[in-house]
């Protein structure tokens, strides 16, 4: 059964960490972060330990407060948080053009909320890749309860080194997960490798918008709070993410900051100045109750020592996220563009070769060697073919799925 009761929250804190070691895991986790003297290089070098500690400590809070899907969503007026989350998942599936029978990979799948929803919505088989053992055990139980164990499974592995052969999947998506990667190009390259040529990778990514000023102390503080409260080694800019996709070999046929024209702000559920019956546990009063409950359960020894500190850094994250979303010109984006969405097909072989030859030619030109004029002409023809085929792909997707873009 879905573990959303107070006792489940308390006993789940620490995930697979021994209960008597939770307190020291909180210490070690906090020390990775700027707010506690840590730095980006150490977080990146130890990303696996840092991110796993974070999800061992935080997963039961996520499940209690947010549900089975651990992501935000743009939202319409009158829509509940849960409805918006499901719609956001369906939208991704439609954009990828998922068809019954396809073999799909969910990169960084959490406890499998999106995976179950998308598998049922599209009649596909989905493998959830996750490096956190506790989340996989929760996801496996939830798959069994939902009756999707036949079509969906989990693999415990790092998305920087995937245990799959080249060209395995008919579609790949990642929802607010690759932000944990220490190196975006490395992660996207792995996705590219295991995706079949001509198929699609789509994702919702966490990014900083152009409004982020690295020299502004208040911006820096907000960024550090978001990193601490969300287990992030760093937060990349939108441009860095899009460049990384291209460097990994993808063509980007659609990219959009979904936060910009969302009628209800993505960060609203975390905003304590707002009240909601349907998201009561996230309101100021709901959070006060949770905090008191966690403190009490820790005091009587039901929740492990350190639970209250986890609750505190998650609260800090919520404050940072609201601040990041709020302190920017309306409708222009935050210094954190919460909901960057992109759709990136892996080019077929000929297209990939052409892209490579274009890169080679650019390298030849910069190194001072004269390019062969015939080779240039050949490349131009190939490039035109490539552009036509990518545009055709984009048009096909747009006319079928993206009429609201
Ligand atoms: C914010 S959660 C999102 C989960 C899921 N996509 C969802 O929306 O419910 C990020 C997920 O990425 C996973 N993750 C982080 N780093 C990873 C890595 N190096 N390899 C595999 N999974 C990773 C975490 O364990 C977690 O499940």
Automatic annotation (TrEMBL):
Annotated Basic and acidic residues bias? 360-382
Q: Which residues form the SAM-dependent methyltransferase Erg6/SMT-type domain?
A: 54-347
Q: Where is this region: Disordered?
A: 358-382
Biological processes annotated in GO: methylation; sterol biosynthetic process
Q: What is its EC number?
A: 2.1.1.-
The record's InterPro entries line, in alphabetical order, gives: Erg6_SMT_methyltransf, Methyltransf_11, MeTrfase_SMT, SAM-dependent_MTases_sf, Sterol_MeTrfase_C
**In which pathway is this protein known to take part?**
Steroid biosynthesis; sterol biosynthesis
The stretch of residues making up the signal peptide is none
* Keyword field: Lipid biosynthesis, Lipid metabolism, Methyltransferase, S-adenosyl-L-methionine, Steroid biosynthesis, Steroid metabolism, Sterol biosynthesis, Sterol metabolism, Transferase
An example Gene Ontology CC term for this record: endoplasmic reticulum
Q: Can you provide one Gene Ontology molecular function annotated for this UniProt record?
A: sterol 24-C-methyltransferase activity
Please verify whether the record's keywords include Lipid biosynthesis: yes
Lipid metabolism in keyword set: yes
Q: Which family does it belong to?
A: Belongs to the class I-like SAM-binding methyltransferase superfamily. Erg6/SMT family.
Q: What is this protein called?
A: Methyltransferase
What lineage is on file?
Eukaryota, Viridiplantae, Streptophyta, Embryophyta, Tracheophyta
């Amino acid at each position: 059964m879905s573990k959303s009761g107070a006792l489940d929250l308390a006993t789940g804190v620490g995930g697979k960490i021994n209960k008597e070691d939770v307190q020291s895991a909180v210490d070690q986790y906090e020390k990775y972060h700027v707010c506690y003297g840590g730095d980006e290089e150490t977080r990146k070098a130890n990303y696996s330990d840092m991110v796993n500690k974070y999800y061992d400590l935080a997963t039961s809070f996520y499940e209690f407060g947010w549900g089975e899907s651990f992501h935000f969503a743009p939202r319409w007026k009158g829509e509940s948080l849960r409805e918006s989350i499901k719609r956001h998942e369906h939208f991704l599936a439609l954009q990828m053009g998922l068809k019954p029978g396809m073999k799909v990979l969910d990169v960084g799948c959490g406890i499998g909320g999106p995976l179950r929803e998308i598998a049922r919505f599209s009649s596909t088989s989905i493998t959830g890749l996750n490096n956190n053992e506790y989340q996989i055990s929760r996801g496996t139980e939830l798959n069994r309860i939902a009756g999707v164990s036949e079509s969906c499974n989990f693999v415990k592995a790092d998305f920087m080194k995937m245990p799959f052969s080249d060209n395995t999947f008919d579609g790949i998506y990642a929802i607010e997960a690759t932000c944990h990667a220490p190196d975006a190009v490395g992660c996207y390259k792995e996705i590219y490798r295991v995706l079949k040529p001509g198929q699609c990778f789509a994702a919702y990514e966490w990014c900083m918008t152009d409004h982020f000023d690295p020299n502004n102390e208040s911006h820096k503080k907000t960024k550090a709070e978001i990193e601490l409260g969300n287990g992030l080694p760093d937060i990349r800019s939108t441009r860095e993410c899009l460049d990384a996709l291209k460097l990994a070999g993808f063509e980007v046929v659609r990219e959009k900051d979904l936060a910009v024209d969302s009628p209800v702000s993505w960060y609203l559920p975390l905003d304590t100045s707002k009240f909601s019956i349907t998201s009561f546990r996230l309101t100021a009063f709901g959070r006060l109750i949770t905090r008191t409950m966690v403190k009490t359960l820790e005091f009587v020894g039901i929740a492990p020592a350190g639970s209250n500190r986890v609750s505190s850094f998650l609260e800090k994250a919520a404050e940072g996220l609201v601040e990041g979303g709020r302190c920017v010109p309306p409708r222009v984006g935050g210094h954190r563009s919460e909901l960057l969405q992109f759709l990136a097909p892996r080019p077929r072989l000929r297209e990939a070769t052409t892209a490579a030859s274009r890169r080679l030619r650019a390298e030849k030109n910069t190194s001072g060697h004269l390019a062969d004029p015939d080779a240039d002409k050949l490349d131009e023809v190939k490039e035109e073919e490539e552009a036509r085929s990518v545009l055709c792909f984009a048009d096909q997707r747009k006319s079928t799925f993206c009429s609201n873009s």
